[in-house]
Amino acid sequence: MEVLGPQHERFDEILTPEALAFLTLLHDAFAGRRHERLAERMRTRSDIDNGRDLRFLESTRAIREDPTWRVAGAGPRLHDRRVEITGPTDRKMTINALNSGAKVWLADQEDATSPTWFNVVNGQLSLRDAIRRQIDFTSAEGKNYALRPDEETPTIVMRPRGWHLAEKHLRYIDRTGQASPASGSLVDFGLYFFHNAAELIARGRGPYFYLAKTENHLEARLWDDVFTLAEGELGIEHGTIRATVLIETITAAFEMEEILYELRDHCAGLNAGRWDYIFSIIKNFRGRGATFTLPDRSKVTMTVPFMRAYTELLVATCHRRGAHAIGGMSAFIPNRRDAEATTRALDAVAADKRREAGDGFDGTWVAHPDLVATAQAEFDAVLGERPNQLDRQRPDVRVTAADLTDVRSLDAAVTDAGVAANVSIALRYLESWLRGVGAAAIDGLMEDAATAEISRSQLWQWIRQGIVTAEGTRVTREHVSGLLDAALAEHQAAASAAGGSGSSTDGSRWAEAAQVVREVTLSDDFPTFLTIPAYTQFLIEPEARGPRSSDSAAVQRAASAEELVGAEAAA
């Protein structure tokens, strides 16, 4: 494993020869299978494009119908998950999350982290220091941040990047001498596990993970094999690792039981990742016509029939197998200068969490420390002193394949405001992401990459379907391009009025963000993840940038992240 990225202070504490050797071991064992799984994603998407409807697998019926098996369940300090706070792993956010009063911190190296080389390694340093209680932070204004006592801090559950993402600042050399970028998943998991597993166990906790963007049970099997090898290599008892899988793709929703089964020795639960789930529906069914065209994002709530079917099935499946069911994100940011707006936000959070607790979820997500108490109050009202409600079975739940994909049940329209909001949100989030900030406050919400994904995918779909808004505006390339030009000019003018230039010379990235949004919404091809072209064009350090990485035209032509990964593997 070769390090191509620049060295910063203390990076040598993470990128040790022993840790790099461990990453090489993981890649030797699993790089080939990773590419096989990514190729299978493309085949599945092609089948759906060609008219195949999703169904529960006949080949795994015996697993679903066998009532005897259970997952491993919660590890030490993971039984009570009633409120989980999510956020990136920079030092300030690490301390704030660990002081939040939540039961769990989802330490996010995925959607809430912009994967600059500095963020990737510095996040590992923050986690390493926090686990050993050696972390503090002083802001530019002189404010000091330090940890609460250990017994008051949440259990850490780390989320590595998904299988589709590469880490181009590390080059993997296989046994034949072929070079390719490292896997972001294996890098994030491997560095965290190598440096912290033994320390976490000694402190009465454990190495716990959230698994993102899983699309089927074979990808879960791959993760389980990674865990087994990693445990054996470091002399850690099999089954010590615990994983919670985000069910945030439509294909995974049809394989929840199989995913639990494949990970049963290491599994703690499933999570309802709502925004990526909606994005996945658009991505997979984008070629199937108006039947799968969704209205304004604000209208796709968790109470619409097809989303309700998804969450009900998740709770029933988890509790039947002894796994936690964790609810979705509340991304509201309380405004301490606007008491009325804060009251409205807290009321909305309370209603959302009351529904989840009443449905049988064992816990939920929030994005801001000020929401922890509100969310906890709703779960306390249902759970009382119990750590969870695994004993609440849901035999009343009957969900069919048609229920999960019945987008037509949502009777709502696309509006002019919805189109403009998607343009604005995609542009503002990408600008933040390109500056290295992966969790961005936008219109009173803490947004991550999932928000930009659903915004740009809806724009792409509406253009291709020739959607006419409720006000009579046809959504065309020209219309969206005009909205993007206007939004770009507005933000650049605001930056100029504030004394900057609105360009990269003052640190802002508006022009580059607009370029990416234009590429992923107006082109004929549909990049499977917008972060792939954005990363490849703008986040790779010069030391790691080769001819393929700098070929922007090739990036623009790529129809999917998996195609890019496959091309890199063949390079």
Automatic annotation (TrEMBL):
GO terms for biological process: glyoxylate cycle; tricarboxylic acid cycle. Residues 155-405 form the Malate synthase TIM barrel domain. Pathway: Carbohydrate metabolism; glyoxylate cycle; (S)-malate from isocitrate: step 2/2. GO terms for molecular function: malate synthase activity. Gene3D superfamilies: Malate synthase, domain 3 (3.20.20.360), Malate synthase, domain III (1.20.1220.12). Keywords: Acyltransferase, Glyoxylate bypass, Transferase, Tricarboxylic acid cycle. Residues 414-537 form the Malate synthase C-terminal domain. CDD domains: malate_synt_A. InterPro entries: Malate_synth_C_sf, Malate_synth_sf, Malate_synthA, Malate_synthase_CS, Malate_synthase_TIM, MS_C, MS_N, MS_N_TIM-barrel_dom. Its EC number is 2.3.3.9. Residues 2-60 form the Malate synthase N-terminal domain. The active site is at residues 159, 448. One of its GO terms (cellular component) is cytoplasm. It catalyses: glyoxylate + acetyl-CoA + H2O = (S)-malate + CoA + H(+). Belongs to the malate synthase family. This is Malate synthase. It comes from Schumannella soli.
